[in-house]
Amino acid sequence: MNDSVRSLLKRRKVHLLAALVGGAAFFSLFNTAINFIITNVQLFLQSEGAFDIGTMTFAVGSLLLTFHLLPSEAYYVLGGMSFIATGLVYYKLRTNFRELEEKHAKGSSRFTTLQEIKNQYKAIPEKSKKYEGGGGVPISRYKENIFIDDSPVNNLWVGTTRSGKGEMGMFPMIDIYSRAEEKASMVFNDPKAELFATSKDILKKRGYHVEVLNLDNPLQSMSYQVLQIVIDAYEEGDMAKAEQYAKTISSMLYSDPAAKDKFWQDSASALCTALILGLCEKNIPDNKDKITMYTVANTLNELAAEQEDDGSGKMVTGLDKFFDSLPENHAAKLQYSTVKFASGAGQTVAGIFANAFDKLNIFTLTPIAKMTSQNSFDMKKVGFGKSVLGRITPLSRIHMTFPDGEVSVRSDENGRFSIPHDKSLQKDAEISMRVEPEAKKNKKKKQQEEEEKKVPAEPLFLKVKVTQIEEDTGEVSFVEVERQNDKEGNAITIEKIEHFDKPIALFMIVPDYDSSLHVIASLYVKQLYTELARAASASKGGKCNREVIFILDEFGNMPAIQDMGSIITVCLGRKIRFNLVVQSYSQLEKVYDKEWKTIFDNCANLLYILTTSHDTAEDISKRMGERTIASQSRSGGTLSMKKNKTEGTEGRRLLTPAELLQLEEGEMVVIRGIKRQDKERKKIKAYPIYNKGKTRMKYRYEYLADQFDNSVSINDIDIECEHADVNLKELVYHFHESEAKKAKAAMESADSPEHETEAEEKKEATAESEPKPLEPIPYRNLPARKKLSDHAAYDMALLMGEKHEFCTEESFNELSVQGLLELTERLDEEKLIRANVFPSLKETIERNETRYNAESQKGEVEDAKQTG
Q1: What Gene3D superfamilies does this protein's entry cite (predicted)?
Q2: E strands within 268-404?
């Protein structure tokens, strides 16, 4: 029996038709037989006993179609018997000839059909044409259309080297996202610079601003100040965030998942964190250019080498002196205590220093040192191109009105505000700001009176007019048009307006021959996400104004990004998506240890191109599921024509591991984790997609070669570089020289009456102009200091905390030296002021008191001599 006949016999319709025919035949046969018997019995009875066989009736037609010889009830019974016979025939046919796998006894999985793909995914033109909405990941294709998943999901791509993941995955994604009406910003890890060189021109034509972090040739690159995020937090007075960011940098720099003993990397990380925070304390605000990773490495190298006996037989290093010079309880001192605890064993300390410098060594390379010395691109523009920055009374609610809408935000505890928005802005447009006075509760009477003097009853109001918008940078020039109800120390100040309306394409080029530099790319991803998340938290809706897509090729070769498991868990709610490209699961497991499962489980789509890892293929094969198939067996002699044949069922993977290891070019498997609705929001089952044949994915060269020309090399492209002429000598921080200069300046300031007079005059002039936080006041000026202006009192309030009655002009000027010191100590104990205020003030008072006593004794001796 050939296959076509066998297949025909297994069909349900054939079985039903055969059963109906059998039932009809059963009815007809019984009806004919009964009619034959009745008719001939009647003829026999009519022949009066002379029966002649020749008189019998055999007319089949008349016997078959005769229905009046029996009562109607008899035919009902015959019909029921025929119906039962039909059911029995159908049952026998189905049980003996049906497809055995129809019961799905061993598995019910299957591949998604083309029609189902059309119903479930957005179809876009395969090239050139712009389309509505946002972009997405290519899931399948048919003829001239590509089906994309534009839902908010993370994606994991599996493709080994030379598998075509760039040609059929990365380039199509760049093309798809850049043609969308709602363009997303894109961030690429580009190990071989192929994505950048091939895509740069078409991206610019489509309205993208292109940036390059080129670690392969840092002098053909944008500038990236690794510590800028720490500096910004430190300047804002947010020591907790500054310490957190410094720790993140150090932890990623010294991360080693394979290390069995974490002591060395933890100690080196703590030392690096301490140096970063210490340099911030020493160089903000006057020498911020000296706070770089190059300076950190250089300072460690110089001060760790300095050793001397402190007189008690204990060796003291230059680092010890550096951290001892910081204020008490400074965060840098606490971090350095990790190293101090190990000081009992000289070799241990030396080992920590060596481990710390080993990872910092990359920042001493001249090109890298220059590249990381400054910033040329504000990373927040990736998701927030439009913002307004300024200052106002701390914790105030600011309402900002644009030509097409209003946004509001609250200033922080330092009075700073940053308003990210999505409003339109053009030349000559006006922006107005309004700050409503807030009711003050639970205030002491004196403090309430002082605040009522300072805060007007009417809302503060400021209106500015846009005079120019720089298209390349987004910087906005503006002039003040109207200002109402301002009072000294309580004015609205707009520091910066940015209106950058282009999507960003940022490429991180990392050398495949030097993995030590890869950590800089990982640091950039972490810091970029942190900045975007912070800005999103301050924006309406808690998400980026522009969607951000990370496309991280060779993600498995990037050093671990700290908290990646947490990032990928919450990023979708902030309009941030990740496309992670690995060669096998083992890469993820090696880099992220136990965290890799969290990363894997939060990727809704698994797009498989090819792997050489059997373990990876085995897992993907299992995830695709099994279907039930019929199995046949036969037995008998070799030359026997009579064989015993049996049929059964068994489960079979949709694709076995061996088949997955042998996919042809253009074939791709998509496993969908959370796809449960189609485009019409109807419930569906997310069966795997197997793109082959008419749905096979195309390579770039097959349909995009005219727009993405891979003959262009990065060496053919000139990349603007702002740090090429940086003088590294100017970045070096000389601790001893700096301390000597400060001491000398303090002595000159204390000993020179002329200098003191000039300083007092300058202070008075400054107090009447722009607010500037006050430093602890020198001891000699405290007893007889002049009254502070409202501005200066307000600045002192910012320094020490606004919610205290002493922060008024009258009460502050009534304080004695000891009173000021005691009040500051109490605020320090309550943790209501910055950690360095009280120690610095106390140290200044004690130092000047010692000098004052010495001068007094000297004066008494001279007076005695003159008297004598």
Answers
A1: P-loop containing nucleotide triphosphate hydrolases
A2: 307-309, 315-317, 386-391, 397-402
Q: Given a cut of 80, is residue 488 above it in pLDDT?
A: no
Q: Are strands 185-189 and 548-552 parallel, antiparallel or unpaired?
A: parallel
Would you put residue 415 in left (φ > 0), alpha (ψ -120 to 50) or beta?
Answer: left
DSSP 433: E
How many Cα atoms within 13 Å fall on the side-chain side of residue 554?
Answer: 20
Which helix (H) or strand (E) segment is 791 a member of?
A: helix 790-800
Q: How many CB atoms lie within 10 A of CB 388?
A: 27
The DSSP H or E segment spanning 581 is strand 576-582
- Lowest mean pLDDT, pick from 20-34, 88-102, 217-231, 512-526: 88-102
Predicted pLDDT of residue 614: 96
Output the pLDDT for position 414.
80
Contacts of 588 (CB under 8 A, 6+ apart): 555, 556, 582, 596, 599, 600
Strands (E), 583-686: 605-610, 626-635, 644-653, 668-672
Higher-scoring residue by pLDDT: 644, 732: 732
Scanning the structure block, which residue is given the tokens 């500051």?
824
Residues 756-808 pLDDT 10s: 555 565 555 544 444 434 344 333 333 333 333 444 444 444 444 444 444 55
Given pLDDT bands bounded at 50, 70 and 90, which one contains residue 472?
A: confident
Domain limits, the chain: 3-98, 114-223+503-635+643-716, 228-371, 386-438+449-499, 753-867
Q: At what angle do helices 263-283 and 331-341 cross, to 10 degrees?
A: 150
Collapse the DSSP code of 439 into the 3-class scheme (helix H, G, I; strand E, B; otherwise coil) and give the result: coil
d(CA 23, CA 28): 9
Domain 114-223+503-635+643-716 CATH assignment equals 3.40.50.300: yes
Q: Which region among 21-30, 761-770, 846-855 has the lowest average model confidence (pLDDT)?
A: 761-770
Question: Cα angle vertex 654, ends 596, 104, to 5°?
Answer: 115
Amino acid at 42: Q
- Across the chain, how many H-helices and E-strands are there? 30, 26
Q: Cα 685 to the chain's mean position, in Å?
A: 29
Mean pLDDT of 422-428: 91
Closest to 572 (Cα-Cα) out of 612, 602, 606, 530: 602
Q: Do domains 114-223+503-635+643-716 and 386-438+449-499 have the same CATH topology?
A: no
pLDDT tens digit sequence for 600-635:
999 999 999 999 999 999 999 999 998 877 666 767
Strand order in the sheet with 460-469: 405-410, 397-402, 430-435, 460-469, 476-484
Burial of 728 (0-12, 13-18, 19+ CB in 10 A): middle
Q: Does domain 386-438+449-499 have CATH number 3.40.1350?
A: no
Rounded distance between C-alpha atoms, residue 640 and residue 634, angstroms: 12
Residues paired with 122 in a beta bridge: 148
Cα maximum dimension of the chain: 186
